[in-house]
Every structure is written in structure tokens, then in C-alpha cells.
Amino acid sequence: MTGMKGIHRGTLWITALVLAALLLAGCERPEIHRERFFAFGTLVELNVYTRDADLAREGADAVRADLARMHRDWHAWKPGPLQEVNQALARGEAIRADPAVLAPILEARALSLRTEGLFNPAMGRLFALWGFQSDQAAGPPPPQEAVEALLARDPDMADLHMENGRLSTENPAVQLDLGAFAKGYGVHRAVDHLRALGIEHAILNAGGDLRAIGRPGDRPWRIGIRDPDGQGVLAGIEIQGDEAVFTSGDYERYFTHEGVRYHHILDPRTGYPARGSRSVTVIHEDAGLADAASTALFIAGPEHWPRIAARLGVDKVLLLDATGVAHMTPAMAQRVAFRKEPAERRIQALPGDPGPAGGP
Amino acid sequence: MTRGDALVILLAAALVGGAYALLWSPAAPATQVRIVSGEREIARLPLDEPRRLEVPGPAGITVVEIRDGAARCAASPGSRGICQRAGWLRQAGDMAVSLPNHVLIEVLGDTGRFDSINY
Predict the structure, then answer these.
(1) DSSP assignment string, A172-233
(2) Coiled-coil regions in this chain (chain A) (predicted)?
């Protein structure tokens, strides 16, 4: 190799190699593969960022099968393992529950205790009384005496005992409904399944609640939080890594009777729809916890949510109250970008958390 | 001011303009409607040709109406009218869903603003 000639040949080779690499990279460019289907009684959307279309399809099939199985196992008012547990509890019998349903029940019990009972999946009878244990609740609201009679029997997750692998309760009013938890728990596990298949970057969204992992290329996942007032987007959140975003809102399921709107988030202390909040959004790495937390904090309301959030170890919360004020933790305030300005922003550190500014 | 200065200012202005267009442009108007029944896409139609479409599902017929660059769920078997209440869908990404009838009506356009919507 001599002087100029050698250099020219080297340049040529390097250029050719770079071009080939670029072309090859272009051929296998990763992209977002999106699948939508109905499962878990709702609309499910899976975004997978990969260069392997077959892998994305395999992931969608796996999620579809997982969610269908979980929906069957955990259904509160259709025949299945959860209904078997409820029937045994109503008869005052101990039951060796199907493992598929035992694990979420025990986790829901632990979470219920941490929310001071505001998330109360033992209130299956209350949800049934209001007609929310049906595909379409139509009202009217139940007679007040019926609600009071049930509250007097005080069904609570603390009444549920686990001994020698058997579930039992001394309170026959306990009927389990995992409605405010099952979707989160299920989404979390379905995404774990995607990971086991080798999918690193995905969002699984079931009826508006989602868990995201990884990132699509060199940017974060972009999530829009829908405005409770309509179709538009209230705020944007960026996610990279592994986080779930769950929202409980009064607009999700409700019926109107004689001009009054009754939504599905029932306060176990009053037996009536919780007042004071319009929606609560929680970001947390555990989707099951995020699901239960959004319900519990909605019920806790604009005054008491920080105490419950602290007990749950949830530091990213956005609560939109009935007057349009956005209550936020400092960590959430840093993450959320409003597209529509709320009536007021109120940032509140959680008890025991001095917050970024030092605090009292 | 030298020609170099002018060039730098011009480039900076172009950069700001480009970033503005990329990041802050208003929601894109939709151009197409996509209709999914069950797990199958049954139609993808332009929004500039008026028409009505009957989509059968497990609960009955969902009627989709397309007019003036928008689509809507004109009728659907759900007793609470959630599908119809979504109104006219104009912005890319807007959708109306009939859960009892397993029908999804979604309008598409040139937008990549959000990967997923939380509600």
C-alpha cells in the first residue's frame, strides 16, 4: 500500500462499510406495532416497539389470551373461581381457593388495609346493590335502608382470613369484587409476560389504564391524560423505563336518575358515590397498586388524599377536584405538562416527605 | 452585521420555526376513519366522502356517519349512548367505542403526538 493510493482505497472501504451499515439499519428499522382488541370487558391497545413484526404479533396473542383467562378467573358476577369463593364465604364455609384467584385476593387484602379500607373489595354486595355488577348499570339508586343495612354488617377485607391454605370469614356479608384492582394486577402480569417473550419496549393500555416499559427509540413514551370534561387531552406525561399510569374518574361508569348523576366509585363509609373528586391519576411502577390507589385516593377526596398516598408509598398523584383545582404531589408536578390550564394548581408534599423545597 | 452573522440568525430562526412546527402545532385534523368490529378492521374510509355505514355486532347495529371531514357514531345499541356521546370525531386520534357491540370508530391523520391515551 503506498501513499495517496492507500489512503484513497481506505476511504473508499470505510465509506462503503458505513453505507452498508446504514442501509442494513434502514432495512430493519424498529417501529411501533399497534394492535387493538376487546378483552377484559374493555378496549385493549398494545404498542410494541421492535424491528420484529412476528414478535409483536406473538406478544399481542399472549396478552389477549392472558387477559381473557384473568377476566374469566376474576369475574365477580359470572361463574368462575372468584364466584366459587364468594359462594363459600356466603355459606360461612372455608374454601381452598384456586391459586389463580388466591394471589390477587391476598394482595388486594393487603392494599385495602393500607388504604384504611377506602379501597374495599369486600363490598361486592354494595356494588351489586347499585347495579354496578352488570355490564350496564341503569339505576335507580338502591333504597337508602338497603344501603344502611349493608353498612351495618360492615364487610371488610380484615374479616377475611387465610389459614392452612383456606380462605374463610366470620362475616357472611363479605363478597369479593376485585373491580378496582384486577385490571391493574392483570395488566402488570401481562406486561411481565411480554418481557419474558423478549419484548423490551411496549405500552399495554386496557380501557385507558396502562403500563409502559422501555422507550420507542431515542425518545420517551408520550402519554396523554384525557380531560374528564370531554374528548381532548388535559395533560401529557412522558415515560421511560417501567411505570403504570392509572386514572379513576367519575365519568367512566355512571347512570343518571331524576337529574342526578351516580358514578361507580362508591365510598364504603357512606355507601354512596364518593363526592369531591372528578378524577385521580397515579403513576407507580406497580400497576395493581396504581389501580387500587387511584380508587382509594378518589374516595379520600381533595382533603385527605395525601395521608392515604403516603401510606401507600405513592408519590406521583394528580387529583382533579369538583371545582377544577388540580392537586398534585411535587413529584407529579414535575412530570405533568398541562395542555389545558386547570382552575388552580395546588402542590402538596405528602406527610413525612419534606418535598424538594425542604418544607415545614 | 456580517454575512456570517446573518446566516447564523437565519439558521437559528429556521431551527426555532422547525421546533415550533414539530412540537407545538395544533392537533392534526383527521383524514380517514377506521372502523373495527370485534377484532377485525372492517373499513378504512376517507372523511371527505359523505356516507352512512351499518356495522353489525353482537348487540345489534352501530351506524357510522361520515360528513364534512368528520365521522360519528350516529346510532348504537348501548342503552346509555356512550358511543353517540363522543360526538363528531375530527382530530386525529379521536374515537368512539361501543363496548356492548364491540365496535371501535377511530379517526386517523398525521399525528404522532401521543403514543397512548390514559382515561
Answers:
(1) TT-B---TTTHHHHHHHHHHHHHHHTT--SEEEEETTEEEEEE-STTS-EEEEEEPTTSSSE
(2) none
Domains of chain B, start order = 30-109 (2.60.320.10)
What pLDDT does B23 receive? 44
Decide if A263 is inside a domain.
Answer: yes
Question: Is there a contact between A248 and A314 (Cβ–Cβ < 8 Å)?
Answer: no
Is residue A280 less than 8 Å (CB to CB) from chain B? Answer: no
Give the structural domain span for A64: 31-360
Could you tell me what percent of chain A has a pLDDT over 70? 90
ipTM confidence score: 0.85
Distance CA A186, CA A192 (A): 10
The per-residue pLDDT for B19 is 55
Does the beta-carbon distance from B99 to A38 stay under 8 Å? Answer: yes
Q: Which residues of A touch B86 (CB under 8 A)?
A: 231
Q: What is the CATH number of the domain that holds A182?
A: 3.10.520.10
Do the strands B116-118 and A221-226 form a parallel or antiparallel pair, or are they unpaired? parallel
Task: Give the pLDDT of residue A3.
Answer: 46
Between A209 and A5, whose confidence is greater? Answer: A209
B94 in contact with chain A, both atoms CB, cutoff 8 A: yes
Residues of B in contact with A225 (CB under 8 A): 117-119
